[in-house]
Fold this sequence. Notes:
This protein is α+β, with helices and mostly antiparallel strands. It is 24% helix and 32% strand. It contains 9 helices and 20 strands. It has a 4-stranded antiparallel beta sheet. The protein has a 4-stranded antiparallel beta sheet with strand order 5-6-7-8. Helix 7 packs across helix 9 (341-356). The longest helix is centred in the C-terminal third of the chain and has 21 residues, at 307-327.
Amino acid sequence: MMSSDLLIQFNNLTAIREIKFEDRLNPKRDEWLFVCDCGHYFHSSMRNFTKHQSTKCPQCFNLFNKKYGRLTIIKTLSPVDSAKCVCKCDCGNEYITYLNNIKRGVTTSCGCYNKETRKKINDLTNQRFGNITIVELSHRRVSNKTMWWCKCDCGIVKEIIGADLLSGKTISCGCVGSLRRSLRKTKNIIGNRYGMLIVKGRHGGIAANNHVLWLCECDCGGTKIVNSYDLQSHKVISCGCKKVSRGELFVKKILLSSDFKDNFRQEMSIDGSRRKYDFVIITNNVIVGLIEFHGKQHYQPIAYFGGLKSFKKQQENDKKKILASIQKKVPLLIIPYVHSEKKIEKSVRAFLDKLTV
């Protein structure tokens, strides 16, 4: 590292001292105070001179009092910040910008030129480009290009560069590309069975999770549109007709014919958790009994219900339900699927009789 007390000469420039860390404009780089033979003081990185990227001060570049587009450079912002300069625009405004932007032609006005040219922009409002409908002109620009607020057929509203729409580079908010990628990656599952559903064909569009939608036919005769993930993970196994099992319907029939016909609730939690019991019996606003009908999936893995993974979750859930009923001191009747209707009715009525005692 160079000593901060050493004077270093670069052609017309002399490095006087290194700037203290806390006084630097950019803490990430080294910074020195230089003086030019013309008498101008300025800050810069030593790297610019050791790599021969610069051998003159901004004053000696003879940029001042010359016109660059609509701007005339008056002076640098300060001896400390020579990277920025103060300019006078033809419209009369004073404007501060980076000297480098002036030299490269990036900045040519105080912004008045853009405002004037905006008035000449072709109005694209309500025009369609692919899946895009243009809503209105945006007040923002990207790389000096006009932006438009657009609405895609999928419902997404976003800003898009007008030139990209006119050239055909952009035809959607991105959903078309997502659909194409999904279609390339998705295997053909037409004819496959998932629970009570048989896949009949693809449905137009994609789901919110970018999975392909499929038209499925249920064993009951109904149809349902399901995305590929929900089918293959067995999250959806019917059109909705299989929400209540035959056993639960039979237990409900028994309850409706009992003294508790107006005092039971279905699919209700007793501890505020997401675990719900098939039937909760209530008397005088107090929970007095619980009934659970356990289908085959409660006792062994069934592919129809999600296989081994779902079976393990089901067993864990059942244990927590039993524990909750014990903690709440509420009697729980569990009815296995192997019981006949006669045996189910006998056990339910005996359970209800105990609750009335």
